[in-house]
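Morning, I've got a small favour to ask if you have a moment. The fold is given in discrete form, as structure tokens running alongside the sequence. I'd be grateful if you could look everything over and explain what you see. No rush at all, and the record is pasted right below.
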Amino acid sequence: MANIIRFGDLVRSSGRPQTFSLWSGDPKKDRTLQQAIRKNRVLTVFLEPTSTKKPFGQIGYHQKNSAIYLLFPRALSPDTQSRVIGINFDLLDEPDERRK
């Protein structure tokens, strides 16, 4: 059975993540994503739009159509089998458009 990790604990230990959009279509060609994967800074959040289940995450890059990817500023736990629960999108570090 996989361990359970709370999203808030990841944020406290690894910083506030930013959402990542894969514009190139091929994850192998995106340098930002590949660098984050190598440094273990990616959390895949699985969303099931037709389900009443809450979103959950898994450390690492796991390609799926109904997933979003969060990139953390510092490395995450190496336990890629853990289930991350309590995803709070208010804890994301989104760029402030007024700073531009």
Q: What stands out?
A: The radius of gyration is 13 Å.
